From TrEMBL:
Keyword Phosphoprotein: no
EC number: 6.1.1.23
Protein name: Aspartate--tRNA(Asp/Asn) ligase
Localization: Cytoplasm
Annotated GO MF terms: aspartate-tRNA ligase activity; aspartate-tRNA(Asn) ligase activity; ATP binding; nucleic acid binding
Primary localization class, coarse: cytoplasm
Superkingdom, taxonomy of origin: Bacteria
Amino acid sequence: MGQTAYRTHHATEVSEALVGQKVTLAGWVDRRRDHGGVAFIDLRDSTGLVQVVIYDEEVARPLRSEYVVQLTGEVRERPEGNENEHLTTGKVEVVVEGLKVLAKADALPFQVSTALENESENKLPGEDVRLKYRYLDLRRPAMQYNLKLRSDMTKAARHALEEMDFTEVETPTFIKSTPEGARDFVVPARLVPGSWYALPQSPQLLKQLLMVGGVERYYQLARCYRDEDFRADRQPEFTQLDMEMAYVDQEDVMAMAEKVIAAIWKTQGHEVRLPLPRISWQEAMDKYGSDKPDLRFGNPIVELTDYFKDTPFRVFQAPYVGAVRFEGGADTPRRQFDAWQEWARQRGAKGLAYVVFGQDGELKGPVAKNLSEQERAGLKEAVGAQNGDAVFFAAGGRESSQLLLGAARVEIADRAGLLKPDEFAFTWVVDFPLFKRTDDPDDDDVAVGHSKWTSMHHPFTMPSADWIDSFDQDPEHAMSDSYDIVCNGEEMGGGSVRIHRDDIQDRVLNVLGIDKDEAQEKFGFLLEAFKYGAPPHAGIAFGWDRAVSILAGASSIRDVIAFPKAGGGRDPLTGAPAPISDAQRAETGVDYDPDEDE
Ligand code: ASP
């Protein structure tokens, strides 16, 4: 990293090659140990640790954890038996000749020392404390690693995109609403009392305008804002790697996006084999009970609706019956099966029916006695189970049953240790429906219009070629040209071919229940732009925080964001959101009432 006014070397640059030489280092006191009048200090900087030895007690005495020091000393080999193979600098140490305290540190709210890194993360304080003192939390090597990885990924993505002749363009964040299915954050406009800017849920409309504007290949690392109810791994503001291209189709976009994925995964030494596999949305739902299937393991859901079509068992007399195999589940104690019931109830299901195939092949479990002789006889084969397995069933509505079985499938794999964070199973999910119902209780997206249909992706998504003429007659079955990229059961990105004709856009808005006036008011500027020669265009956006967290193997996207929000959108560090003063209120015009003005 090179020399500065404060140091000749970084900690991890101190190596055997420097033995006998003088170095000047600067960093934090990570830990100190005292051995009979000699103090050993781990000095930490952004590269890692090096051990320094202080023989002068006067010098060592005042030093505490996280003091910032600058020191000069001679590099020597560690005495035999004192090497530390866990450290890159473990064969050497620096014998201090001069040391200056650059800044003191108060008693810490929690231990920052890297000694923690080899122990359980449980030693860390609760997340609120970590976020309140984020600047301390960030000193931990795990966090330094995540931020560096993020930066490396960004560099690689930029490079890959520049190679493909993309132009990076910044779009404004004070805009008119862009509907992506969430609520807008809004900002009062002081100069136009009673008027508000919306913060972009994504740069969607702006990037489409860039296509009309002749920028044929655009990208941006865009900050997006969505005011959603709190969900575990979401942030109210987040980053997208956003791309849009003109004169392309779905295949072109997918091929270019794959190159970006391969480039960013390569930064960590992973070769991603291209082209990536694909699965249709319908197949993903049928086999994996999810539109973002985790394909690190198999074990697809088996549909048994036909198998049970004449069943005497009332529960299975349903529009859909499916099952998922629980390999080796026969040994599961009764109370654990009870816990599975609770698990299912938490997902809004009534329970999780199951059978067990004993080692001797005998069929047991609460459901078994309700089945006909014939059903019992063929079940093992129908589900692809073995003796010693258990099988979970769901019966009822197709989608809700599939979602439950899909979640059970992942839970079974998780408990069996099959969800390895350093294995990456990518898939494109393609052939999405164009619309979804607005009355789905499991869906908390905000409908764009006022009909029973809302967009599955967003209102600017092109119906697939077969549906261009008829999508508005049969919104339930209409398909779209959209695609999601999924890795390890997480949606890493998504995009679509866009509508570039105002007549098709009008008809889609019509299905969504947005009439001409409202359309004009909301996105008249886009519809107008389409009148002046809009090229065919398509794009995609990667959820950048999510992509980084997947590659980093982080358990939460908060671990790859320098200053994330805590639950409820709070920032424990700065105290945002916070009340504003009366004077500020008056000035911003938030209380402006047009009626009073008249
Ligand atoms: N704007 C979309 C989103 O934020 C992505 C895209 O269609 O490019 O999900």
